[in-house]
Amino acid sequence: MDFSKLYRPSALNSFQFIALTGLLMSAGAHLILHFFVGRTPAGFNWLYVCWTALYIAGTLRNLFGKPNDSGHHHHH
């Protein structure tokens, strides 16, 4: 099992990449809201739960999915 699929950017699948981008953007928004607005909206922390769940789902697919199993069948 190749655990570099958890952290190496070139080995991440699209779900993991989207989740990490979402986590970073949510954290940035959280800091901006906290320091410049003084509060965050109710339920804002649920974003972190959703991004983490998406990352875990992507990781499971990346680690245990078949290679080249994208669900798309291309005919040339």
The residue-averaged pLDDT reads 87
Helix content: 55-70%
Question: What is the oligomeric state here?
Answer: single chain
Given the C-alpha coordinates, what overall shape results?
Answer: elongated
Reading the helices and strands in chain order gives HH
Main sheet specs: none
Enumerate the spans where pLDDT stays under 50 for 5 or more consecutive residues. Answer: none
Rg, nearest Å: 16 Å
The separation of the N and C termini measures 33 Å
What structural category do the secondary elements indicate?
A: mainly alpha
Strand-residue proportion: under 5%
Molecular structure report:
This protein is an all-alpha fold and 76 residues long. It has two helices and no strands. The protein has helices at residues 14-37, 46-64. It is elongated, with a radius of gyration of 16 Å.
What is the compact description of this entry?
The protein is mostly helical and about 80 residues long.
Which secondary structure elements does this structure contain, and how are they paired or packed?
Layout: H1 14-37, H2 46-64
List keywords for this structure.
membrane, elongated, 2 helices, transmembrane helix, mainly alpha, 76 residues
